[in-house]
Amino acid sequence: MQIIKDGKIVQDDWRHIADDESLPTGRFTVSFARWQAEGDILKSAGGEIGLRIRGEDAVETIAGDLNHFTLICIDFPTMADGRGFSLARLLRERYGFHEEIRARGDFIRDQMFFLSRVGVNAFECPPEQSLEALLPALQEFTIKYQAAVDEKEPLYRRR
User: Fold this and answer.
1) Fewest beta carbons less than 10 Å away: which of 8, 80, 150, 153?
2) pLDDT given at position 100
């Protein structure tokens, strides 16, 4: 499968495993609930571990575990659920997470630029969407008025 990561279309080898699925080798993601239930086992499983979170997940409860993840995948159950924006910004700014943050699920092209502003650097899109058509969305705006993860100073302070 291909994704958009750091402004490019790249091959992705992460595997999203179900809560009842046995642990594979290699790179895999687990749900927030599974991490809370089996975190100690997963830490010793070997391989790279990613975490899938949703808007209702309390990321502050796993803030001390963030060094175990090389990917945090934020699931967007509906386009109108904006909690993933807040989660991404919290992960970057409050908790200092510097690895990959990926948006996955029901987000739209118009949201991609704004997701990148709050710290999302990868996008996993449904197979029916053309990654080539989505890629330009990351560059559609050239001036950023507000401060965010990607621009620490608001425009009026940059003059």
Assistant:
1) 80
2) 98
